[in-house]
Amino acid sequence: MEIKTYDVAVIGAGMAGIIAARDLSTKGHSVVLLEARGRVGGRTYTGDAFGRRMELGGGYVHWTQPNMWHELQRHGFDTLVPPLEANKTFWLADGRVHSGTREEWFAAAGMNLARLLSDARARFPKAVDINAVDNTDLDRQTLKERIDALGLSGYERDCLEGALSGLIHCPSQHGALQLLHGSATYFGDFMNYLETAGRWAIRCGTKPLIDAIMSESSAELRLETPVSSITDDGSWVSVKTRAGSDIRAHAAIVAVPLNTLGDISITPELTPAVRAMIDQKNPVMASKVWARVKGHIEPFHALAPAGKHPLSAVRAEKYHDGDTLFLCMCADAAAIPSDTDERCRVVQGAMRVYVPDIEVVDTACHDWTTDEFSKGAWMMHRPGNLTGAAAQIRKRHGRIHFAGADIAAVDTGAIEGAMGSGAAAARDVVAYLRMTRI
User: Which residues form the Amine oxidase domain (predicted)?
Assistant: First the structure.
């Protein structure tokens, strides 16, 4: 059988992959886009729940994110909506539930948040250049170790870890530098960083944006085509699919989640640091669950330290057909049952810690940790990887390039990071093909 040849093979049609494929194809290059799932978008996924479309994966964006805002404006999707306005806040600390206004909660957590991240701008004065300053002294520090150094009481620590719980899965496994870098990206302020990561949603949802990006691409899309191996022999990149098909290209962009890279044989071998990062995996095994609560109830926020409550963060998001939809972030996806009835029971029980008579009538989620083509949630790097292996993997590996939210130079783990990473990889490939006169 004749092997079909392309200028570029892009493996993975998440946000990084579709941006890279679009940008390359509009430059006149022949591109094949290989996606293991039966849809594009990756961990950005709009599904059906509660009789409407719901974001079951990444869904929050911000006008300060250059790649995302450019795409939203060019396609006419730049109307963003916030969650329901809620002043009532609950926080689990020192073994009991506290309640008050948002200002009262922030008085309990804000000072220590500032202490934790006080040197963010000094560590990353130019966030787009992650190694502009030598941070070797903090490279191996875990977030737990950094929190330990603050000398907090049990109550203060729980307030602080609750404030981080929308992003953090396990402080002992996360490197401290990524939180510092994320805060530095948004002017040294964690609350600014948190706003970009989880407040503003696209009114029409992410799917129309994904469809619009794909409509601009002339890449040949092959769905349900997982890849088993990628080989650079010095002249060509050969890609073999699990089904046994062979594809040949002058260059390749690998844009799959870090936790699935180990399922693909890559030749030549990657650097020891990169291989170690792939083997260690992204530690975030968290989940995003939507809860439909009976009736229009007073909006509230609730926060708990990761590991001390099934739901680490809860927020009233919107009203729908007479009920209230809540966003629930779960530090451990394994604590949330897959059975729908049991999941309702567990989520309702967790929410009743804050509001005793609340009634959960339905839930919806996608478990990214058991999904074969993600095997984890958003990225929070282990110690040493953000400035080390992640920076290394972004460099050209012969004819093979890498992209994705997990290894993004800015906004790691976010849709913006994926878009920026895909665009950067496409630019690198264009320059490489020009250099080799392809």
Answer: 15-429
Q: How many helices (H) and strands (E) does the chain have?
A: 14, 20
The contacts of residue 277 (CB under 8 Å, 6+ apart) are 258, 382, 385, 388, 389, 390, 393
Between CA 80 and CA 217 the distance in angstroms is 25
What's the whole-number mean pLDDT along residues 266-280? 97
The Cα–Cα gap between 314 and 328 comes to: 5
The binding site comprises: 35-36, 227
Mean pLDDT of the chain: 96
Six-digit token pair at 199?
Answer: 């407040």
Please give the model's pTM, rounded to 2 decimal places: 0.96
Distance CA 138, CA 177 (A): 7
Residue-wise over 151-189: b if at least 16 C-beta within 10 A, else e?
A: ebeeebbbbbbbbbbbbbbbbebbbbbbbbbbbbbbebb
Helix axes 102-116, 190-198, angle to 10 degrees: 110
Q: How far is CA 409 from CA 43, 137, 209, 417, 421, in A?
A: 18, 20, 23, 7, 7
- The whole-number pLDDT of residue 216 equals 98
Which residues make up each annotated binding site for FAD?
35-36, 227
Tens digit of each residue's pLDDT (9 = 90 or more) over 172-181: 999 999 999 9
